[in-house]
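In the laboratory, one determines a bound structure by crystallizing the protein with its ligand and collecting diffraction data. In a computational setting the workflow is compressed into a single prediction: the sequence and the ligand go in, and a structural description comes out. We illustrate the idea with PBG.
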Amino acid sequence: MPFPTARPRRLRASATLRRMVRETHLRVDDLIYPMFITEGSGVRNPVTSMPEVHQFSIDEALKEVAEVAGLGIPAIDLFGVPHEKDLEGRHATAEGGLIQRAVREIKRRFPELVVMTDVCLCEWLSHGHCGLVRGESIMNDETLPVLARMAVSHARAGADLVSPSDMMDGRVAAIRQALDAEGFEHVPIMAYSAKFASGFYGPFREAAQGAPQFGDRSTYQMDPANGREALKEALLDVAEDADIVMVKPALPYLDIVWRVRQETHLPVAAYNVSGEYAMLWAAARAGWLELERTMMESLVGIRRAGADLILTYFAKRAARLLKP
Ligand code: PBG
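The predicted complex, in C-alpha cell form:
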C-alpha cells in the first residue's frame, strides 16, 4: 500500500497499545538458572569473568537457592566444580558425590523447585575432555556407560531432570535406558542437541574449571558453520526420546533455534552462555551498553526465535524486572 495509507506507527502510539499488540512475552517460568557447586563450606567464590556469578559450597548454595526460589524462578541446573578428578570419572558417579549431595540438600529444603543436573564428564576428568580418552582420542562408546551411571546417581539423589551436555553419539538413548532400568522412567532428559564448538564458553571454563588440557572439543561439539547438521542432531535426540532439545549458544545461533522449533513438537531450550553474559557486562561496565535493557532484549529475542526455555546467568536479574 502506498504512503500515507499504510501507517504501522498507529499501533505504537501508546504504551497500552504496544502492550496489546506485543507478540512475544518473557515470563519468569521460562528461565532456568545455572549454578556452580564446589566442595567445602562457607565458600562463595566470585567468577571474575562473570559478574554476580559465584561458585558455591553446598551450604552457600542453599542461600542462593532460597533467593532464586523466592523470585519465582522454577528451575536451577547444577554444574560440579570438584576438587578431585581422575581418568575414569569416578567422582562424577559416586552416590555420595558433590552433585549428588547438593541435589539431596536442595530437594530436602525446596521440594517444589525443579533441580536439573548437568551430565558431562569434563569437570570430573583430569584432562578436561567430555569423554574418556585413549591417547588423544575421545572415545564415544566407552563414555556412554559412565554418563548413564552419572545420570542414574543424580536421579537417585532426587534430581528432577538430567541434562547431558557432552555431545557423545547415542548418549540420550543410553541414559534413557539406564534410567528406565533403575525405575526412573519418570525423569526427563533435556538434551544439548546442537551444542556448537564455541568461543563463547570461555568464561564458563573459568567458572567450572573444565578446560581441555590438550586439543579442543571440535571432534564432538558441532562446527559453527553447520545448520542442517544441527537439525540432524536434534532429530536424533527426539528419536532417542529426549524430552527437551537444546541449542547452545543462543544469540549467534538464533536461526538454529528457529529451525529446530519448526522441526519438532518438543519444548526447545536455548543456553544464553557465559560469553554472551560476559559480553553484555563488559560493555555495560565500559559505559557502552545499558545492561538491563540489552539483557531483556536478548532474552526476548531468544524467545521470539522459538525457545520455550532459556538457561541464563541473568535469571535473577530478569526475574526481578519481571516481578509484577
Ligand atoms: C561442558 C559445558 C560447557 C558449557 C556447559 N557445559 C563448556 C564447554 O563445553 O566447554 C558452557 C556453558 C557456558 O558457557 O555458559 N560440557
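Residues 23-322 form a domain with the TIM Barrel fold (CATH 3.20.20.70). Keep in mind that any predicted model is a hypothesis to be tested, not a measurement.
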